Amino acid sequence: MKSELATKFADPSRGVYFIGTTPPRSSIEDEQLDLISQKLLQRLDNIEVDGLIVYDIQDESSRIDKPRPFPFMETHDPRAWSKRLKDASNKPVITYKSVSSRSTEEFTQWLQEAWDDFDIKDIVLVGSPSSEGDIKLPLSEAYATLGKMPLDFNLGGVTIAERHAKKKDEHLRLINKSEAGCEFFISQAVYNPQATADLISQYAQTCKAQGEAPKRVILTFTPCGSAKTLEFMEWLGISVPVATKNRILGSETPLDESIKICRSALELIMETALPDGVPLGLNIESLTNRKEEIDASIHLYRLLKATLDLKLAEQALL
Amino acid sequence: MKSELATKFADPSRGVYFIGTTPPRSSIEDEQLDLISQKLLQRLDNIEVDGLIVYDIQDESSRIDKPRPFPFMETHDPRAWSKRLKDASNKPVITYKSVSSRSTEEFTQWLQEAWDDFDIKDIVLVGSPSSEGDIKLPLSEAYATLGKMPLDFNLGGVTIAERHAKKKDEHLRLINKSEAGCEFFISQAVYNPQATADLISQYAQTCKAQGEAPKRVILTFTPCGSAKTLEFMEWLGISVPVATKNRILGSETPLDESIKICRSALELIMETALPDGVPLGLNIESLTNRKEEIDASIHLYRLLKATLDLKLAEQALL
Questions:
Q1: Neighbours of A246 (CB within 10 A)
Q2: pLDDT, tens only, A4-27
């Protein structure tokens, strides 16, 4: 059966809305997983989501010299977490997969099991965090491997506007990923909206020149309530302009300030993307397990979803 | 089991959103009903609704001398239509019931069957369209009858701001209906937002004086694309200010104009109701079966829902 999300993604008049989450660390016993998933899904009771996104967290220390502000820990299998959330919520789940550290055979097996045993229909493949280090399976080969299998996954890719700001070629990566089968893209957390707007604008222009419809770009946003979270964001490679940093660190209510910043960022990106015909979506996550940041992520979700929904509804009237 | 809507209504931080609909006329054969309900529910595929509202259409000719612009026709049993929609969509349905023309015994039987046979949990009782004519069961007695039955309906009442504009006592009717068990109110279609804002403001003041939390008010909006629909609205008792009438009739795109008018109306009402702590909801309907008015009602739904969602999300940040 075709992914239900693929049908939604194909309708540019609508937004699509996700909550991003990571599997619990592997030291957590199976008995506790039910409780954790229930708690997560309860938070979704009061918001309308099209689905969830489950990350595949890797140790990215090869990418950067600085120590990771929150230490890296192995997690439970994202496929199992994804299935648990899907079964408990009856919502589709997009499952990330980091491909670089395993062989083609192992990746083939991962895909087959994801489809057969974990009922996964929507995946995002992620390449190596850096070009250094031991890459057993480059992303391009992973796409080729997937393309040879008779499994009708709804395939997405990641997009990193920060890369565009430096190398000016991220829009071409999106085109290449589209050719490799990607039907949608999910951004890294946005704190530098101009970089994202620039990327989307050039992507739209290139699509237009090639006579292709742009794929949907799902924008990730995350609240930031402390200096340590900010440090973690920067460690992850999220670009935060200095004025934005100063606003958050100088505010008496940094979480609320970060929500305002995210909302302005979305407004700026919408102004570029919607007239250019690039369908948008949102993915809201909390980077930490702090209760106030998790609660803020739900506020942020409601605010940004309503902002995009309203803009789309206004646009439909023009 | 408690109504799922009652839980949503009890949370003032969220809006609640409905599509209103009438059962097909009784001359339509049973075989066609499936098709009609499918068509209706397909339109809901691209919007997020908390549920549906099924009206109980009465011949209101006792209320007014003028001929009805669209002739009155008997419909299928609203309970059966409600159950069909609920079963096909898995969404809750609020079912209207006009009580005045039948005896207490008949009403008791209606309620019991609604609960047992039609799985109805949410009802709105409607009194006589005018104080003239043969009233077998006044609304107050209907509430008393319901109160004696051990059925835990989520009960709502109608509210007519136009009555308030004339008699200045509609807010007291809401208080009385609350005492009789009403947990929410559904307005007549709003085209005179000041009358609705006045009613809500006085209702909120009275609640405050009595130390009661105001009940949720679900505002009905409907697009209007032609002189005939406008005439029908006025026949139904909907007050349309002359400037609004002129805007609609003078526009080259009257449907779009009416959508703009509804949106401004909602903004005005929100400005009064939300600071006063009156939780709101929306009910969008098309008064005719014309395709363009039905399509416009879906546009209107998306626009007004996003408008209210955004305001509520902004309010949560204050």
A1: 11
A2: 999 999 999 999 999 999 999 999
Which residues fall within 8 angstroms of residue A1, CB to CB, at 6 or more apart?
A121
DSSP symbol at A63:
G
Strands (E), chain A: 16-21, 51-54, 93-98, 122-126, 154-159, 184-189, 216-221, 280-284
Distance (Å, whole) CA A150 – CA B44: 33
Q: What is the pLDDT of residues A162-186, one digit of tens each?
A: 887 788 899 999 999 999 999 999 9
Hey, is A216 helix, strand or coil? Answer: strand
DSSP B32-76: HHHHHHHHHHHHTTTS--SEEEE------GGG-SSPPSS----BS
The yes or no reply on domain A4-313 and CATH 3.40.250.10 is no
Long-range CB pairs of A30-38 (<8 Å, 24+ gap) are A33/A76, A33/A81, A33/A84, A34/A84, A37/A81, A37/A84, A37/A85, A37/A88, A38/A88
Residue type, A151: L
Q: What is the mean pLDDT of residues A87-95?
A: 96
Q: How large is the average pLDDT for residues A134-150?
A: 94
What pTM value is reported for the model? 0.90
B187: part of which helix (H) or strand (E)? strand B184-189
Distance between CA atoms of residues A315 and A308, nearest Å: 10
**Which residues 6+ apart lie within 8 Å of A123 measured at CB?**
A94, A95, A96, A97, A114, A153, A154, A155, A156
Contact B310 A312 (CB under 8 A): no
Provide the chain B residues 290-309 that lie in CB contact (below 8 A) with chain A: 299, 302-303, 305-307, 309
Say which range, A169-173, A222-226, A287-291, B160-164, has the weakest mean pLDDT: B160-164
Tell me the shortest Cα–Cα distance from A127 to chain B, in angstroms. 34
What number of CA atoms fall less than 13 Å from residue B296's CA on the CB side? 25
Asked if A309 contacts B306 with a C-beta cutoff of 8 angstroms, the reply is: yes
Interface TM-score (ipTM) > 0.95: no
| A interface test, pick of B303, B311, B318 with most A CB neighbours within 10 Å | B303
CA–CA separation, B98 and B139 (whole Å): 9
The domain limits of chain A are 4-313
Q: Are A233 and A224 in contact (CB under 8 A)?
A: yes
